[in-house]
Amino acid sequence: MIRLCYASTALKDWQSEELLELLKSCRQDNSAKDITGILLYSKRTFFQVLEGDEEKIEQLFEKIKLDERHKDVTLLEKKDIIDREFSYWNMGYQNIENSDLGKIGGFKQFYDEEFNPAGFVAHRGVINPLLKLLRGKLVGQVKTSHDELSESHEDPFIRRLNRTIRVGVKFLALLMVGVIFLGIFDVMYVIYQKLLSPPYYLLTINDILATFSAFLAVLIAIEIFLNITLYIRSDLIPVKLVVATALMAICRKVIVFDFKNLPSDYVFASSLVVLALGLIYYLMDKKHD
Description:
With 289 residues, this protein is an alpha+beta fold. The protein is built from nine helices and five strands. It has helices at 16-33, 54-65, 107-114, 117-122, 127-144, 156-195, 205-234, 239-255, 264-288, and strands at 2-10, 36-42, 45-52, 70-80, 92-94. The chain has a five-stranded mixed beta sheet with strand order 4-1-3-2-5, sandwiched between helices. Strand 2 and strand 3 (45-52) form a beta hairpin. Helix 6 (156-195) packs antiparallel against helix 7 (205-234), helix 7 (205-234) runs antiparallel to helix 8 and helix 8 (239-255) packs antiparallel against helix 9. The longest helix is centred in the middle third of the chain and has 40 residues, at 156-195. Residues 143-147 have low confidence and may be disordered.
């Protein structure tokens, strides 16, 4: 297995839509050949990393050199590797931002004055730090963002679809508010029924459990509402809150279990679910701390 890095010069300025089409094509072809890597495009310069079987990489590179959309295709590095740096990306993509320029020593001057194939040849020492920077940015995106409804997606059509879905999510939040109020009325009605049923003004254990179940249903609705509103505000899936909601939901079922009539395997399976969710929540909370 090898890693091959090259740089080239685009014959024209590439728009985001064109880059998106290029990435789609690369990812499809690379997936079939088990090739991974990353593409960087800036200032009419392509910098690309390819990882995979040596024969397949060399065949692909020969094809790339014949592509008439760029020139000055320059091999910068080709070496044997044991592990891939970009194993999760058939073709990742990154931009160079102003905040990145100070993260590599001397990179700002290189980027301003010599960011081209010849510049890469003259400053090969920048390649490995640049690879680490690009990989770190990709990993950071995976860890911190869930971009399904982003309004800043590079594809205009996807942006329009995302905006449409976000309207739907807001409508769901509005409906959930109605469900919460209905749940509150249900709690009041349950208490009213239990107090006015013989024996009057007394709650049995079963009455108390039924009341607790109604309370927890409202709390679960509130948690789901929070999940929806957090997603609207940040495009982030609040995983910890989702786990807490699931834990609360299964605990609500456990509270109202009729253990005399339930099969033992059902109770055992439910206890495993509670244990697993509790452990997940504990580990997430511990990591956050």
